[in-house]
Specification:
The chain is built from 6 helices and 10 strands. With 197 residues, the chain is of the alpha+beta class. Helix 1 runs antiparallel to helix 2 and helix 3 packs across helix 4.
């Protein structure tokens, strides 16, 4: 039996035992199950964000292969990472504009980055088409998406938004992020907490 099946089996057994547990133990068991699920799906709040080393582009520049974006170099800053698939369609570019508009919720010096399955040249074209100054990261092999639990299948990622605090830990996470009003309000609150408001 492979590891994911064993983990799922253990989680189901624990769920079956929850009603018989005292409330304090039940809360601890639920928290452990949530951590197990995030271990399969990427880091959850409080976990250290896996490092990223990815080629990058903006609407003006394709970054040099000698100087990729590295998450650990952004320590001390608030970093927003949005994992998505290709930015070739208009809906994906519209989401870029929404994320760019949320930049004012972030403290000065924050990094706002979108991780896509597209290559750097295609990312620059998408940034030009959307007319946004967002940093776009090329994860064509989906290695970073896999570490963050965002990879769905080859060439396709789930839409997952991470807020990585200055200490390098995940401060907030939104799965299946679609920039709905409630999601954006939660993002603003999380950004406010991360900057000490």
């Amino acid at each position: 039996m492979n590891r994911p099946c064993r983990l799922l089996g253990a989680a189901l057994v624990a769920l079956a035992l929850l009603p018989a547990m005292p409330p304090a133990r039940r809360a601890t068991a639920l928290a452990a199950q949530e951590l197990t699920l995030y271990a399969q799906r990427g880091p959850g709040p409080g976990a250290t964000a896996p490092d990223l080393v990815l080629p990058w582009a903006t609407r003006d520049t394709v970054g040099s292969a000698d100087f990729p974006f590295t998450l650990w170099k952004a320590r001390g800053q608030l970093v927003v990472l949005h994992f998505t698939g290709s930015l070739a369609d208009s809906a994906a570019r519209a989401l870029l504009r929404v994320l760019d508009a949320e930049r004012e919720a972030l403290p000065p010096g924050s990094v706002l980055a979108v991780v896509s399955t597209d290559g750097p040249a295609a990312l620059r074209e998408a940034a030009r088409a959307a007319d946004v100054p967002i940093l776009l990261l090329a994860d064509t092999a989906q290695l970073a998406a896999g570490r963050y639990g965002a990879a769905r299948r080859k060439g396709e990622n789930r839409s997952v938004l991470f807020l990585v605090g200055p200490d390098g830990s995940v401060a907030w996470r939104a799965d299946n992020f679609a920039a709905r009003p409630a999601e954006l309000a939660a993002f603003r609150r999380a950004a406010g907490r991360a900057r000490g408001f």
